[in-house]
């Protein structure tokens, strides 16, 4: 089987063909995210040159419309990303023309890896997990009772409001909410805090206090998810989470914020390292999620 995996992010779109397994990639390319037409035309071109494809999975940044019965299915909808509002992604990549008839599934770039992590979990008793990405944006994919959560739209927990850390006067950069999680710690927000360009963040030393702020807000997000949805595992990914010290700091703040209110062995300093974890696919979590969507689309088409 050859699955086309397309991961659409705010900085890059990554495409690859997964051969039989959802993490066995070939033909991988990275396309910078510029305008929708320019970017998605390159995706379309890649699709038309990689040979036979059995199914396509698109895991896109959002908010998106992932409801197949909706008129705007396949669109990126109310994104703050300039130029990308109301973009018909599926149409622009050729899903209704040259790839008409190829099974396709469209979901968020966080729901897809959340589902892939869940399906490939070694603990088969688990029924839930949350996947958080911290990068250009902050996103949360949520699997509850073995399914990704979709309701009015899909969870947009990267935009929940934050209680400021005691010595943090930053007002946040989200054009919708100011000091939501994304407004406080997206890579753009962190760069603004430090007066740097985003690509310079990699050079900031581990002892800079910005990482404490960052971990504190990730921990608030984790704590809120624990209180609302009780996920059995939280997986962290995205460019900012390449900063290894953030894992330990985040875990410590989660325990501090929850303050022993939720009693579970995993929520102890001894075991929280097994609860708040790095993705098993590290940088490729989103792409693996997209490949999983393709696999699922093929399965569904065969059941019809
Ligand atoms: Zn926001």
Structural notes for this entry:
Helix content is 31%, strand content 20%. It has eight helices and twelve strands. The protein has a five-stranded mixed β-sheet, with helices on both faces. A five-stranded mixed β-sheet has the order 10-9-8-11-12, with helices on both faces. The mean pLDDT is 95. Zinc ion (ZN) is lined by residues 159, 174, 176-177, 180, 182-183.
Total beta-strand segments: 12
Helix content: 25-40%
Helix/strand-derived category reads alpha/beta
The ligands found in this model are: zinc ion
Major pleated sheet: 5 strands, mixed
Radius of gyration: 19 Å
What is the average per-residue confidence, as pLDDT, rounded to a whole number? 95
Beta-strand percentage range: 15-25%
Distance between the termini: 19 Å
* Large-scale geometry: globular
Q: Would you list the SSEs in sequence order as H and E?
A: EEEHEEEHEHEEEHHHEHEH
Residue runs with pLDDT of under 50 for 5 or more positions? none
Keywords:
304 residues; alpha/beta; 5-stranded mixed sheet; 12 strands; 31% helix; binds zinc ion
């Amino acid at each position: 089987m050859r699955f086309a995996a397309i991961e659409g992010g705010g900085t890059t779109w990554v495409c690859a063909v997964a051969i039989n397994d959802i993490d066995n990639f070939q033909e991988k390319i990275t396309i910078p995210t510029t305008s929708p037409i320019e970017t998605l035309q390159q995706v379309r071109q890649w699709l038309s040159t990689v040979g036979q494809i059995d199914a396509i999975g698109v895991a896109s940044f959002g908010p998106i419309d992932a409801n197949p019965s909706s008129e705007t299915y396949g669109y990126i909808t109310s994104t703050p990303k300039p130029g990308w509002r109301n973009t018909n992604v599926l149409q622009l990549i050729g899903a209704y023309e040259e790839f008409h008839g190829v099974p396709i599934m469209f979901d968020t770039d966080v729901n897809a890896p959340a589902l892939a992590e869940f399906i490939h979990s070694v603990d088969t008793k688990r029924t839930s997990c949350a996947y958080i990405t911290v990068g250009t944006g902050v996103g949360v994919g949520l699997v509850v009772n073995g399914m990704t959560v979709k309701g009015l739209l899909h969870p947009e927990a990267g935009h929940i409001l934050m209680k400021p850390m005691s010595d943090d006067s930053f007002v946040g950069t989200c054009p919708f909410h100011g000091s939501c999680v994304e407004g406080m710690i997206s890579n753009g927000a962190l760069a603004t805090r430090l007066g740097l360009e985003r690509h310079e963040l990699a050079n900031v030393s581990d002892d800079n206090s910005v990482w404490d702020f960052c971990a504190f807000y990730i921990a608030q997000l984790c704590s809120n998810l624990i209180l609302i949805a009780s996920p059995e595992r939280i997986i962290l990914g995205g460019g900012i989470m390449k900063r290894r010290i953030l894992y330990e700091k985040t875990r410590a703040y989660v325990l501090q914020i929850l303050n022993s209110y939720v009693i579970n062995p995993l929520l102890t300093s001894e075991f929280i390292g097994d609860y708040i974890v790095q993705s098993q696919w590290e940088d490729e979590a989103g792409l693996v999620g997209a490949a999983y969507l393709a696999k699922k689309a093929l399965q569904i088409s065969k059941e019809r």
